[in-house]
């Protein structure tokens, strides 16, 4: 990047408790074939030595030093606050986010940028891998390339992820519409922001191929019922984000257009909560407005049965169906293992 010029891409990386992974991720970032990059790392009061490890890696790439900025938070603000700090510091033509525990392919940002410029796209996405127990699971995002289809796909969790790290976004889209992250909400904040960005976008597109490696960590949020019930902020943040998405679409006079998909999004969340919480009574009446959409939703039949059981208020039946779901899941894992 020449002195005084603006970078083509600003990459925003929140840093919190990723000391075991950031070395691999930072090296992948600094080895990008695209040269005109601005790297913004946000130290959100990480309790480990993530920043020390990051600084060690920076020393390995002296040609990147002038492109790197580390922002220090004086108090922990969560991922939304970190993303907002990154947005405020960014100057790139396009913005992309990257998690500190993941890594990317060397051509990712160059290929995304070229396609965005070629097609004049406000948002450009790619496929990705889920990295779990040493296995790479390819996730192909073959969504129709128009904003309305993308919003519907994200609301129903089909064909397009609700994450930011696989999407290159024109910075002007954030600025022109004053899109920021909801501080205090640190789960599904990316989903909320993406719905807004796609709504305001003029053109969107994709490139073929998987470039991002999303690390599925066993210690992230919750992996069993006891943890789930002990971390109710997980539910609270998701409920708030889902409500804010609906409110946004209604304010934009698009509520009717996405009515079925909004119901689908609520059912997906209710299914997640009922599947993971021991306290079924607490959640059985969540989103009663979705009951008329149960058998129209793109959900597996077994989950539709659980949702129908919940709609009847029959806690015992929900528990039985849930036990069957868990049994099938364990059996499937045993067969794969």
Question: What labels describe this entry?
Answer:
13 helices, globular, 9-stranded mixed sheet, 45% helix, 2 domains, Spore Coat Polysaccharide Biosynthesis Protein SpsA, Chain A, alpha/beta, 337 residues
Describe the structure.
The model has no long low-confidence stretch (mean pLDDT 93). Strands 1, 2, 3, 4, 5, 6, 7, 8 and 9 form a 9-stranded mixed β-sheet that branches. The chain is α/β, with parallel strands linked by helices. The protein has 13 helices and 9 strands. The chain folds into 2 domains: 207 residues, Spore Coat Polysaccharide Biosynthesis Protein SpsA, Chain A, CATH 3.90.550; 112 residues, no CATH class.
Q: Would you spell out the secondary-structure blueprint of this structure?
A:
Layout: E1 9-15, H1 22-30, E2 37-43, H2 50-59, E3 68-72, H3 78-89, E4 94-97, E5 103-104, H4 108-119, E6 123-132, E7 135-139, H5 147-155, E8 167-170, H6 171-176, H7 189-200, E9 204-215, H8 225-230, H9 233-251, H10 259-276, H11 280-283, H12 301-311, H13 315-336
Parallel strand pairs: 1-2, 1-4, 2-3, 6-9
Antiparallel strand pairs: 4-8, 5-9, 6-7, 6-8
Helix pairs in contact: 1-2, 5-7, 5-10, 7-9, 9-10, 12-13
**Coarse shape:** globular
Major beta sheet, specifics?
Answer: 9 strands, mixed
State the CATH superfamily name of the largest domain.
Spore Coat Polysaccharide Biosynthesis Protein SpsA, Chain A
Helix content: 40-55%
Rg, Å, rounded: 21 Å
Can you summarize this structure?
The chain is of the alpha/beta class and 337 residues long. The protein has helices at 22-30, 50-59, 78-89, 108-119, 147-155, 171-176, 189-200, 225-230, 233-251, 259-276, 280-283, 301-311, 315-336, and strands at 9-15, 37-43, 68-72, 94-97, 103-104, 123-132, 135-139, 167-170, 204-215.
């Amino acid at each position: 990047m020449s002195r005084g010029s603006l970078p083509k891409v600003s990459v925003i990386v929140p840093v919190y408790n990723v000391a075991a992974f950031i070395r691999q991720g930072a090296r992948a970032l600094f080895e990008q074939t695209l040269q005109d990059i601005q790297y913004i790392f946000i130290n959100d009061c990480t309790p480990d030595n993530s920043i020390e490890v990051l600084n060690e890696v920076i020393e390995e790439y002296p040609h990147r030093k002038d492109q790197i900025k580390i922002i220090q938070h004086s108090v922990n603000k969560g991922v939304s606050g970190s993303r907002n700090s990154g947005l405020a510091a960014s100057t790139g033509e396009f913005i992309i986010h990257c998690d500190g525990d993941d890594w990317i392919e060397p051509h990712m940002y160059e290929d995304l940028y070229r396609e965005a410029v070629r097609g004049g796209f406000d948002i450009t996405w790619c496929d990705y891998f889920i990295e779990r127990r040493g296995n790479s699971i390819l996730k192909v995002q073959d969504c129709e390339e128009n904003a309305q289809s993308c919003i519907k796909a994200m609301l129903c969790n089909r064909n397009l992820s609700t994450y930011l790290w696989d999407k290159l976004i024109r910075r002007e889209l954030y600025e022109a519409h004053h899109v920021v992250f909801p501080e205090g909400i640190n789960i599904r904040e990316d989903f909320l922001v993406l719905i807004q960005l796609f709504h305001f976008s003029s053109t969107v597109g994709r490139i073929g191929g998987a470039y991002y490696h999303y690390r599925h960590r066993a210690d992230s949020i919750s992996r069993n019922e006891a943890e789930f019930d002990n971390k109710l902020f997980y539910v609270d943040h998701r409920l708030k984000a889902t409500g804010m998405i609906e409110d946004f679409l209604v304010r934009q006079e698009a509520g009717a257009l996405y009515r079925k998909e909004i119901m689908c999004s609520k059912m997906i969340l209710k299914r997640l909560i009922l599947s993971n919480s021991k306290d079924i009574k607490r959640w059985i009446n969540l989103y009663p407005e979705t009951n008329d959409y149960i058998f129209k939703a793109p959900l597996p039949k077994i989950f539709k049965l659980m949702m129908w059981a919940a709609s009847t208020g029959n806690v015992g039946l929900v528990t039985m169906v849930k036990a069957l779901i868990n049994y099938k899941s364990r059996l499937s894992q045993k067969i794969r293992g």
